[in-house]
Amino acid sequence: MGKLNSKIPDGPLAQKWTKYKASVKLVNPANKKKLEVIVVGTGLSGAGAASALGELGYSVKNFCYQDSPRRAHSVAAQGGINAAKNYQNDGDSTYRLFYDMIKGGDYRAREANVYRAAEVSNQVIDHFTALGVPFARDYGGTLDTRSFGGVQVSRTFYAKGQTGQQCLLGCYSSLNRQIKKGNVKMFPRREMLDLVVIDGKARGIITRNLITGEIERHGAHAVVLATGGYGTIYYMSTLAVNSNAFEMTEGYGSRRQKEIRVRQMIFPRRSEIIFLKEDIRHSEILFRVMSPQGLSRSAVMQAMV
Questions:
Q1: Cα–Cα distance measured from residue 138 to residue 88, given in angstroms and rounded to the nearest whole number
Q2: Largest CB tally within 10 Å, which of 124, 128, 215, 257?
Q3: Domain count, the chain
């Protein structure tokens, strides 16, 4: 088994990705249409990536196993989106959001990537607002926020109890616009079977047509895997039950390695209590407290401290 290379840029933590973005080679606009990109998945990440790449001028192929991109499991996300805009003037900042995400992930997340997520969080809210997502607003018309997840600041932007659904509708509309313009070609009812790797780089995928059963091959200059988390390993979960995380394991080169996005929830299963933390990446984290008699709510909360 080879060593997993995260390919995080060098430099100070707060400047790693910013410096890389400023120094990376650009693609000539005249050449973008010649470059093909495959995006597997049509949730908030997949549909967002496909539509953004199409908007930039690349030739994009988008795959999903549902009948329509609209059926992606991102619709289940309800709580909201965190961003360090500090609208409430309560002392929030990019670093505070970064710290809360690191701490919420039990210090197991990759710090540089988490800092980048905190850094672009404001742009994410602006992006979704531009797509027409009806975020809640206060009486002055400013986007409203609420305190969520036990943090000390109010940074969660929400759309009633339907944040995921509204964001998915925005991404879906943007994706359909690019499909109509011919920048994105949609491939519904396709299951990814294998990742084509040439000289250490992803250059395509092998899929199965779930209608005809035909095995298909698709080549590209780059592959984006936005397939979501593996929900079926848990007895109760808000993750997609149809996703088997096979695409992610192929991306790692070993089926024993899994990337699972877990949620900050408690799932009871008989006498077991499973603790799952938000923002854990590239690791399979499972905490269990065993008791023949089961655990009371007070015992569960005490164990979480």
A1: 11
A2: 128
A3: 3
Determine, yes or no, domain membership for 135: yes
Say how far apart CA 4 and CA 127 lie, in whole Å: 32
How far apart are the C-alpha atoms of 144 and 129, rounded to whole Å?
12
Q: What is the H or E stretch that residue 19 is in?
A: helix 16-23
Distance CA(283)–CA(277), nearest Å, equals 11
Residue 55's nearest CA partner among 148, 233, 215, 177 is 177
pLDDT of residue 7: 86
Q: Which tens digits make up the pLDDT trace of 157-215?
A: 999 889 999 999 999 999 999 999 999 999 999 999 999 999 989 999 999 999 999 99
| pLDDT, tens digit, 9 for 90 and up, residues 45-101 | 999 999 999 999 999 999 999 999 999 988 888 889 999 999 999 999 999 999 999
Q: Which domain holds residue 143?
A: 79-161
Domain assignment present for 23: no
Q: Do 166 and 191 reside in the same domain of the chain?
A: yes
The more confident residue out of 104 and 167 is: 167
Domain boundary among 103, 138, 161: 161
Residue 172 corresponds to which tokens in the numbers above?
A: 């879906």
Beta bridge partners of 294: none
**Per-residue b or e along 88-113, where b marks 16 or more CB atoms closer than 10 Å to that residue's CB:** beeebebebbbebbbebbeeebeebb
